[in-house]
Amino acid sequence: MSLSLSAPVLQKARDPVEGNIMKIPRQNFAHQIEKDEWRVLEEIAAAIRSGQAILSEHVSDFEEDFARYLSVAHVVGVNSGTDALVLALRALGVGPGDEVVTQANTFHATVAAICLVGATPILVDPHPETFLMMADAAVGAFSSRTKAVIPVHLFGKPTPLIELIEAAEARGIYVVEDSAQSHGASRDGAKTGTLGIFGCFSFHPSKNLAASGDAGAICTNDGDLAQKLRMLRHLGQPQTHSHILLGCNSRLDAIQAIILRAKLRHLDAWNRARSSVAARYRTALSGCPITFQALDADETHVFHLLQIRTDRRDQLYQYLRQRGIDAKICYPTPVHRQPAFSHLDWPQDAFPVSSALAAELLCLPIRPDMTPGEVDFVSQAVREFL
Ligand SMILES: *Cc1c(COP(=O)(O)O)cnc(C)c1O
């Protein structure tokens, strides 16, 4: 082995608009791999040399580790969080004529997945304080055509599911959890993704558990559905040259699986560190005219994003970026106003809570390796502006 590398250091991003270096970046990929870099690179080199790059034990090892981590029977690795949602819906037979209920303030991919299988998305405005879809609102949107409901554990906060699952099961409606932002989050002792028929995860580089490229997974306790998912991601093949389902090519990449397996061991520690950063922000910003996503006593929130809500959002965003603080807006245009969904004819003024959140939420940088000094620097800038 003759790899030569410098020690991993924080790579500071440039602002694409202002061109200045971000003093407080949102991501530190070097930190994520720091403890494992040599071992991971050696494993990747071995996989490249042996040609073990499609599925192989690298993928099944990660699937088993992640299943054990979640306390769930099966994990099926796929090539993105979007595909995880699409394949989950396909495995359940959701398609044209069916309705799928989800929340209006989610990321584009949740709603795109519903449309990609030919079903009709029915949006529900979120609760204004938790930013999540509450059970009564979701149930109010159920109809005789509803086939599935997708709660999204947005920003890392676990959605309360007991009531929703009871109501859905009574009507034969599947609950598919969008856990793309909530790896390791839990409520009442159950990790997100494990209570619904499927939990769908993304390992996009921005997520709490991040690949070095695109990757995703679906978890389930149903062995038959897991088997079906394994075929759907692999061109419908139970074994080579036997295509019994119309599948697609959406296998988790073996090299990404090697990286994910190494990082998974640190996920809980990183989530705890995120939680401390969030707590420090809350203390440092107490008394400011802003609000945070509401917290509950019985939850473990994993703070994928740290959102603050202010009616001077756009000006604060500019102010922070000019000071080298990598603030971000997620998501500036609500789903119902995206041109991709214009055929659904949602009125501009539908979903007022989702629209207000799109106009007023700002993400402050949050990383597991963030120092108290960095949090205080950002908080000080927010205070100065307000
Ligand atoms: C990131 C994300 C997805 C999509 O995941 P990709 O891996 O980017 O395809 C889906 N839903 C939510 C809520 C997400 O944040």
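^ pyridoxal-5'-phosphate complex. The two ends are 55 Å apart (CA to CA). The chain is about 35% helix and 15% strand.
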